[in-house]
Amino acid sequence: MTTVLECDLKHHSLQLLREYQQTGKARLRNQIVELNLGLVRKEAHYWVSQCKETYDDLLQVGSIGLINAIDKFEVSKGYAFSTFAMPYIRGEIQHYLRDKSSILKMPRKWFALIQQSATITKNFQAQHQRQPTEAEIAQALDISIVEWQEIKMAYQNRQPVS
Asked: Residues in domain RNA polymerase sigma-70 (predicted)?
């Protein structure tokens, strides 16, 4: 059920969008962003639990999508702005997450072994005052040295060089 306040906000938002399309003033665009930031918050909240990025980073990226939607929205077509804006917000966040993700997808077990190796290395250094050898790390992880070297190589090569 739509409340009177929601109707007023939608009407005010559409009024600002019309005015922004006519004048292109940044002040108006910023007001529209502030009025519709809840759309970005909702989408950022959804994605934050599914990635390693912070809520604030996702909020910033989603805001870029909102600004793009504001610039491309046509009031004369009669669409609801929120319906129009959500794909832009979601798309900007997804594009950002795709760019941040690695090219090579590693099995979760391998990531767990990489994390365990960091703990093993730290503890080994504290006890022996030196870096552990590859064989010592592999033995502590209970895997072969060949498997450990494969995992390490895959981890190092998961991002493009350029």
From this structure: 57-70
- Closest by CA to 84, choosing from 95, 94, 69, 71, is 69
CA–CA dist 115, 105 (Å, integer) = 16
Write down the domain spans for the chain. Answer: 4-100, 108-156
The C-alpha atoms of residue 53 and residue 59 are separated, in whole angstroms, by: 10
Contact by Cβ (8 Å): 58, 44: yes
Rounded CA-CA distance 24/46 in Å is 31
Which of helix, strand or coil describes residue 6? Answer: helix
Task: Answer yes or no: is pLDDT of 104 > 80.
Answer: no
Global confidence as pTM: 0.61
How do residues 30-49 score in pLDDT, each as one tens digit? 999 999 999 999 999 999 98
- Angle at which helices 26-48 and 81-100 cross, to 10°: 60
Q: Which residue has the tokens 């077990």?
A: 109
Tokens describing residue 95: 């594009």
Instruction: Give domain 4-100's CATH architecture.
Output: Orthogonal Bundle (1.10)
For residue 36, give the nearest of 56, 60, 9 by alpha carbon: 9
